[in-house]
Write a structure and sequence with these properties.
The complex is a heterodimer.
Chain A (H helix, E strand, L loop, with lengths): L5 E8 L7 E8 L4 E5 L6 H9 L6 E6 L4 E3 L13 H7 L13 H13 L15 H15 L3 E5 L7 H16 L3 E6 L2 H4 L4 E5 L3 E5 L1 H4 L2 H8 L3 E5 L4 E8 L5 E8 L1
Parallel strand pairs in A: 3-7, 3-8, 5-6, 6-7
Antiparallel strand pairs in A: 1-2, 1-4, 8-9, 10-11, 11-12
Chain B lengths: L2 H26 L3 H10 L1 H9 L4 H19 L7 H20 L8 H6 L7 H20 L1 H9 L1 H6 L4 H39 L6 H26 L3 H18 L4
Helix pairs in contact in B: 1-7, 1-10, 1-11, 2-4, 2-5, 2-10, 3-4, 3-5, 4-5, 4-10, 7-10, 10-11, 10-12, 11-12
Classes of the chains: A alpha/beta, B mainly alpha.
Chain lengths: ~260, ~260
């Protein structure tokens, strides 16, 4: 049996009080893609923060194939910070060490190559805060590409992204799959989850883990989303809406497919 | 222009140059309240140094250590809260400093410790300021790329293998050192101006962290020279004149349209 790219064993994590994520166990082989589904507050970001080492697990263990790259939700980055798209991509070179030296020519070439790959070569000098939401997401993806990690954690990379950026990000995902890299992508989009090799459903705890064709049934989705799931059409394949309450205080619905 | 005034200008160019550059990180990491607390809280150390006829730099350094320890102790109780605990500790320290300074046999006048005396700098003060600029500047240059990555996106920086908490600790160390050196010229109350005002003046006008730091250092140095000249022409207190010019620069910079 090959070494897993991600191995999580009975993981509990929280922020000082009771754990907000409980009893999570799953195993992912190299080159597989995993969609992490769950409502807001369901534990998706907490899981990623634990896997990044930013949050100490309160119990359980995990192991990753090398240091993971991370693509955050752009709300977690500083839009007023004076960096441009190239600067953001260049941050990925910090994993190579020599952080005390200025970026070298090879670093800049790698950063420019990553920006080219995500379609931002022409906007390399544009301040990060002046990029659109989708372009910002692509700049963060470029940083992860420069990092050249075997495991990538992507926190709702397609949330609020324009169609052109979504298409470009999808294309890069496909390339990363071909390169046998392991992707963990958190999402609200049940329909897009069907395109992944595996799905992890979270609702403060692990609801289900497995291939989408096996676990994405109505019972699992209701256990995952609770009252945030509204079934619009119960005939197979059924359509459903999840109500997402964002931190900014507004809510919006997205259409979901359900079989 | 007298030799005393030239020495004052040199002190403000050296220490102010570093503080103005450091101010970019004070604002970026939202450390302005911490800087104010530390600078005010070290007053007893300054007074004790004055009473013992010891170098003020030594008193400032000791005062900063004691203030940091007391603040850390005061904020430990979650029922009180960080801001309240800090306010209580700092007010107590300022009160203690005033009590000691107003004792009949206190040689150093309280107003000099509170508002500084740039015209009274010694050769030792100038050497300390030059060392601050050289060593502190070198540390800022070496830490530049990790600081940029961490300040832009803490979670992303952790994924790059950086230690954001350690970087913040290093910044706090630089801040405490800068305050201990610059407090001679501007005093415990006004030293905050040289740490915050230049960064406010250039914020929004710089495209990169490096240019923001260089511009902040230049504004601080220029304000130091202008403040001493203003004091000389108008017959006003030197430290207060410099602080007023710094604040005027901050207001002008904030009001100027961004480009």
């Amino acid at each position: 049996m090959t070494e897993p790219a991600v191995l999580v064993d009975r993981l509990f994590a929280g922020y000082g009080g009771p754990p907000v994520l409980r009893e999570v166990s799953f195993r992912v082989e190299p080159g597989r893609t995993v969609c992490v589904l769950g409502p807001n507050g369901g534990g998706k970001t907490t899981l990623f923060r634990a896997l990044l080492g930013e949050l100490q697990p309160t119990a359980g263990t995990f192991r990753l194939e090398g240091r993971p790259a991370y693509v955050a939700q752009t709300e977690r980055t500083r839009l007023d910070f004076p960096v441009n798209a190239l600067d953001v991509a260049l941050m990925g070179t910090l994993v190579r060490g020599r952080w005390w030296l200025p970026s070298g020519r090879a670093d800049r070439a790698a950063a420019r190559g990553a920006l080219e790959r995500v379609g931002l070569a022409d906007l390399a000098a544009t301040p990060f805060g002046e990029l659109s939401g989708g372009q910002r997401q692509r700049a963060l993806l470029a940083r992860a590409l420069v990092q050249d990690a075997r495991v990538l954690l992507l926190d709702e990379p397609l949330s609020g992204v324009d169609p052109a950026s979504a298409a470009l990000i999808d294309r890069v995902f496909a390339e990363l799959r071909q390169e046998e890299r392991t992707l963990l992508v958190s999402s609200h989009d049940v329909e897009s989850a069907r395109g992944f090799d595996l799905v992890l459903c979270l609702h403060g705890h692990q609801v289900a883990f497995g291939p989408p064709g096996e676990i994405l049934d109505r019972a699992t989705l209701e256990a995952t989303y609770g009252r945030e799931l509204i079934v619009l059409d119960d005939t197979a394949p059924a359509r459903a809406v999840t109500i997402q309450h964002h931190e900014r205080g507004h809510a919006h619905g997205q259409e979901r497919g359900e079989s | 222009m007298s030799g005393i005034e030239l020495r004052a200008m040199l002190e403000l160019v050296l220490a102010g140059g570093f503080c103005g550059a450091l101010g970019f990180w004070v604002l970026s990491e939202r450390l302005a309240y911490g800087a104010e607390s530390l600078s005010h809280g070290l007053l007893p150390g300054l007074v004790v140094a004055g009473l013992a006829d010891a170098p003020l730099l030594l008193g400032a350094a000791g005062g900063a250590v004691v203030a940091a320890a007391l603040i850390a102790l005061a904020v430990r109780d979650p029922r009180v809260g960080t801001d309240t605990g800090t306010a209580v500790a700092v007010t107590g320290l300022v009160g203690l400093g005033a009590l000691l300074a107003l004792a009949p046999d206190a040689p150093q006048r309280l107003e000099e410790l509170l508002f500084g005396d740039p015209l009274g700098v010694t050769t030792g003060d100038l050497v300390a300021a030059a060392a601050l600029l050289a060593v502190g500047g070198a540390v800022l240059v070496a830490l530049h790329r990790p600081l940029v990555a961490s300040s832009f996106d803490v979670a992303g920086a952790a994924a790059l293998g950086l230690r954001p908490a350690l970087l913040r600790f290093a910044l706090l160390g630089l801040l405490a050192t800068a305050i201990a050196v610059a407090v001679q010229g501007l005093g415990a109350l006004l030293v905050l101006a040289v740490l915050v005002a230049p960064a406010v003046a250039v914020r929004g006008h710089a495209r990169t962290p490096a240019t923001a730091m260089l511009a902040g250092g230049a504004v601080a140095a220029a304000a130091g020279i202008a403040g001493i000249q203003l004091s000389s022409l108008a017959g006003t207190a030197a430290g207060a004149s410099v602080a007023l010019v710094l604040c005027a620069a901050a207001a002008a910079g904030a009001l100027l349209p961004r480009f």
